[in-house]
């Protein structure tokens, strides 16, 4: 009788141990699932919040971007103006020195006139060329160096005939070379060279130095 | 469930009945656990809804605009500083090489140098 009772208690304990285990598993599982649900909701909420915030930022950015672009353009424009002024000051300083050389009419300018005439002659295809000086002084200077110029041109493969026009151009310095048939010309006046330097060669010269 | 309870009843009921009754009580105990679990899940779902509903609240765009405007102003200031620095560098490079640049320009204009070499 005693042994039967003991067995019964054992069985009852087993039933309850199994029940407690199952209940505990059910509750633990529910707890885990609940935590997952809340964590997932938190993650979705954070993502959604971040998305909404990003969309709002984008809307605001788009609204402000035109303002930003305009201001940037303005700043860039001011920068370019200041940079150009620096370059322009350089050119003006160089121009002043060039005009001093021209005004002196000394050997430095004679060499310049020779180089400019030679360059003009070499650049034209024609064999008969008329040279136009800027003024009477330059016309006389050109006459004294014409043979030298033609000899140098011949040495470089251009055997040409050149005459100096009676007419003058009224420019500061340099010269204009025109083919006799007037089909081509090469403007090598100082004014034209300054223009070419300013428009075409300044960026090249500066990029080599800076 | 206490052992004492079963012990008292064991004196009155046959073993099979006791076991059957204990099984039923254990099942009820488990069922209660299931109900509790269900309640935990329902509460979690409610909490999830509450969490998600907080993001449905409208954003304060004026605050965002203030932040973005501040960023843009910072960006502009950096852009301006960068250009100012570039201009300073350019200016000092010019100053360092001023004589040489002027010399090249003069010689180029006067034709001493080759074709704008």
Assembly state here? heterodimer
Main sheet of chain A? 4 strands, mixed
Spatial strand order of the main sheet of chain A: 2-1-3-4
The appropriate CATH architecture of the domain at 90-209 in chain A is: 2-Layer Sandwich
CATH domain class name of the domain at 90-209 in chain A: Alpha Beta
Instruction: Summarize the amount of helix of chain B as a percent range.
Output: over 70%
Radius of gyration of chain B: 45 Å
Query: Hey, roughly how much beta strand do the residues of chain A contain?
Result: 5-15%
Number of strands of chain B: 0
| Overall number of domains of chain B | 2
Q: Which segments of chain B are poorly predicted (pLDDT under 50) over 5 or more consecutive residues? A: none
- The stretches of 5 or more residues of chain A where confidence is low (pLDDT under 50) are none
Look at the structure and name the CATH superfamily of the domain at 90-209 in chain A. Answer: ATP synthase, E subunit, C-terminal
Shape category of chain B: rod-shaped
Number of helices of chain B: 3
- Categorize the overall geometry of chain A: rod-shaped
Work out the radius of gyration of chain A: 47 Å
List keywords for this structure.
heterodimer; A: 210 residues; alpha+beta; hypothetical protein PF0899 fold; four-stranded mixed sheet; rod-shaped; B: 117 residues; mainly alpha; 2 domains; 3 helices
């Amino acid at each position: 009788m005693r042994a039967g009772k003991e067995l019964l208690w054992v069985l009852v304990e087993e039933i309850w141990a199994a029940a407690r285990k199952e209940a505990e598993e059910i509750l633990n599982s529910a707890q885990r699932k609940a935590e997952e649900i809340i964590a997932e909701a938190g993650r979705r909420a954070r993502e959604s919040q971040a998305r909404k915030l990003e969309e709002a930022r984008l809307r605001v950015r788009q609204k402000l971007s035109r303002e930003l672009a305009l201001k940037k353009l303005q700043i860039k424009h001011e920068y370019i103006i200041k940079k150009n002024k620096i370059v322009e000051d350089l050119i003006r300083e160089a121009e002043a020195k060039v005009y001093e050389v021209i005004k002196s009419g000394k050997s430095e300018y004679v060499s310049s006139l020779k180089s400019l005439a030679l360059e003009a002659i070499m650049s034209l295809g024609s064999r008969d060329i008329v040279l136009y000086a800027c003024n009477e002084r330059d016309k006389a200077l050109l006459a004294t160096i014409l043979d030298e110029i033609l000899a140098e041109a011949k040495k470089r493969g251009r055997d040409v005939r050149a005459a100096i026009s009676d007419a003058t151009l009224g420019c500061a310095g340099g010269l204009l070379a025109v083919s006799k048939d007037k089909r081509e010309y090469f403007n090598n006046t100082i004014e034209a060279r300054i223009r070419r330097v300013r428009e075409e060669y300044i960026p090249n010269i500066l990029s080599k130095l800076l | 469930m206490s052992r004492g309870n079963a012990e008292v009843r064991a004196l009155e009921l046959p073993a099979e009945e006791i076991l059957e009754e204990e099984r039923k009580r254990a099942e009820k105990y488990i069922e209660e656990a299931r109900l509790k679990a269900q309640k935990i899940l329902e509460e979690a779902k409610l909490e999830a809804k509450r969490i998600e509903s907080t993001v449905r609240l409208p954003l304060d765009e004026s605050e965002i605009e203030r932040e973005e405007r501040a960023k843009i102003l910072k960006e502009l200031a950096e852009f301006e500083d960068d250009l100012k620095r570039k201009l300073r560098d350019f200016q000092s490079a010019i100053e360092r090489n001023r004589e040489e640049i002027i010399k090249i320009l003069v010689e180029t204009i006067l034709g001493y140098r080759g074709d704008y070499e």
